[in-house]
Amino acid sequence: MENANSKSDLQPVLEIRNLTQQFGGLRAVSNFNVRLEPGGLIGLIGPNGAGKTTVFNLVSGFYQPTSGEILINGINTAGMKPHQVTGLGVARTFQNIRLWNDMSVLDNIRVAQHGKLQYGFFHAVARSGHYLARERQIEDDARELLEVFDLQDYAEEFPKNLPYGTQRKLEIARALSSKPQLLLLDEPAAGLNSADIHELIRLVRWIHSHFDVTIWMIEHHMDVMMELSSYIKVIDFGETIAEGTPAEVRNHPAVITAYLGDEKI
Amino acid sequence: MLKRYSIQLILVACGGLLTYVAYEELVSLYLLSVLMFMGVNVILSTSLNLVNGNMGEFSCGHAGFMCVGAYVSSVLGVWLFAKDKVFGPPVLPPELALYAFPLVILAGGVAAALAGLLVAIPSYKTRGDYLAIITIAANYIIISAIENLGVIGGSRGFMGMKSVISSMEDVAYLPWMPIWVFSFTIFCVWLIRRYVSSTFGKGVNAISQDEVAAEIMSVNTNKIKTITFMVSSGLAGIAGGLFAYILGYVNPGSFNILKSTEVLVMVYLGGMASLSGAVLSAIAFTILLELLRPLQIIKWVVIPLLLIIVMQFRPEGIMGSRELSDIFPWLKRFYRFK
Amino acid sequence: MLATIIQNLINALQWGSFYALIALGYTLVYGVLTLINFAHGDIFMVGAYIAFFVATFMLSAAGLPGWAALALTIPLTMILTSMVGVTLERVAYRPLRRKGAHRLYVVITALMCGLILEHANLALLGASRKAFPPMITEHVYNIGGVSFTNLKVAVIVSAILVFILLQWIVTKTKVGMAMRAISYDKFAVPLMGIPMDNIIVATFVLGSGMAGLAGILFAMSYPILEPYMGALIGWKAFIAAVVGGIGDIRGAFLGGFLLGAVEILVVAFFPSTFRDLIAFTVLLVILAFRPTGLFGVAKTTKI
After folding, report:
1. Distance (Å) from the C-alpha of residue A245 to the closest C-alpha of chain B?
2. How far apart are CA A205 and CA A217, in angstroms?
3. ipTM of the complex
4. Angle at CA A63, nearest 5°, toward A44 and A239?
5. What is the pLDDT of residues A159-178, one digit of tens each?
6. Shortest Cα–Cα distance, B222 to chain C (Å)
């Protein structure tokens, strides 16, 4: 179940086939394939500029791929806008934290549930019974989530006033508020100190067991990767150069070559 | 119980007082018209604040939408309920004007909301300064289009709204204009407050703060932008309709960029994304304009100068993004502003 | 037929020259500060008035012959107008920038400065229009059915010269390179030891100077001055700058000439009241297809 390539009859949460993304003359992602089974915790690594974030941007619908297919729970996302893709059960965090800094922490969580509001402008303005019930539900869900993440004390605070590590945590909480089946974490440990990183490893592991969610993670901190993921894909210049368990990847000659002079494994 | 409904009670009392005062002619017509323009300005300022404050766009053609509303409701009202040189005798019995008046004003609002699409659709792809240009161009396009419509008077303007009002007064003698301006002002502020305080409407603020994150976090940004622009321009259209019926005469020249600038000033004076700030600054600005009226042309030197000085000391506007209840916390007992 | 086309082309070039010269000021300031200097149209108006006073003084008080008066009026007007521009930047924009005010508040301040210029002028000089004194005699040439005046040619030639000069300044000189550097990265430039404020002042000098030049040429071609003359032309020139791709000098010129051409074309086929309507619609359509203008580069969002 953990192995991304293990043959099983389960519908994959995410399947990418021959994905290629061209930016002008630059081929940022080339012929990328992946199949994520439900419940996995998979890693994506590669040197800077290898095209990792581009893959995430393609999955979340921010870019339209030059060629290839992305299927989420069996549904092809071609031509979909990001919010529609999110509606299929994908959520993500960003390399540079992108919280809404001038809205309270609670509102950040509430707005991230926009996709499942089930009411529109006229309900909102008329304050219908349906609206009030939905709003109550959304607020309850948001408060519950904050409590689960131990952020309830910050509910009325603005994100910009929180410590960096807490902001990272809040961003993950916000991503989970839409109850996704697939969570994309883009360098969650970036900018954290070693104590925070330790905390993050525990958090991700806990999320993985506590929420019913498949996690795909980009990370430069190898200890985080080695500790958490069961399967790793390595890309460089948009091409997959290696994949396998952490131990296999660590000793793969192509990986060592790709990282030499950039980062030691 | 009393606390919960205190705002409603105060508003009803204010409305009643205004009606009484206008009915008994206790205040001069001049003062009454200033009060009515205050209401129009409150609508304009809060509705532009929705786009420029909450959504963080820079729309500077608000008067264009006001113009659409003014013309549509004027022409509709005159065509239906008044004798006119061009349109001939009234289509419907003038007595009906009493009941149809709010619908006529709303029709102007709907037309202006549709005109808002002129800006909403480019906003899918364009942001910031480029969108600002589109709003300016939209303002000019609307004005020149009306200037070239000879049927409704072109650049000479359009009149006849006074007779619609007087046929309303023939049925029941009440100060209809103050009553309707007051009601529509309350309606507009109420509508905006309900919109921006819902989770749905908070998507507007999310777009302003990080559009990419908003779209990826499941906010349908194009839909929210469309609704927001349409609400904003629609309310401007309502303000325009009221403006036309207060004056009894409209011409395209009164909706030029200078008028848009006036509205911008009200919004930025109050502070962006603050609804109570927008209301207060509209009231203050209207009073200031009237106080400085004796200065005539120098008024337009003094006001910008004042504003520049205000900006040097309070670069975020009078209220910033705070609401009245953030400054006077005891107000929260009566009303939640956010 | 051919004569009509050439005739309209010359008229378009002349109108376009005014727009281009004013659009330059918008584009230079925007390129450096990302500030829409809404007062710029009124700086053009002030330029025309300055030219009026200088020219009147030269002709009547100093009693100079026309050509000498013109030769003195042009540099003097440009200098005085650029001082107006720099004053605005020093008094109104710079303090706000220092305080780190929201960009839009600076834009509103610019709008207010424009209003002040317009209405202060109205209050000081009254609403009566001023007739600009003729400094050179206008010759009408007629070649194969195409008529043009020496003034028209002068306007077009000076616009082209200004374009070449500015293109040289921006691409070849140190100041120009610093300007471009600021537009790429505002934060790195002071760290490289480039005096940011001096560069900004230089930008305002160039932009307002060109507006002054446009003011003289406009006043000579259409010798009637009134305080609101800058507003509409200014807005249009600004839109022209955006259509060309704001921040790019080539864009400002292309946009200016394009707008001139569209307006002349409209007047050739429709009643002249349709001019603004159609011109703005054309610009709106262009922006709908190329949201960042003809020369503008789309900024990509990185996530």
Report:
1. 30
2. 12
3. 0.89
4. 40
5. 999 999 999 999 999 999 99
6. 16
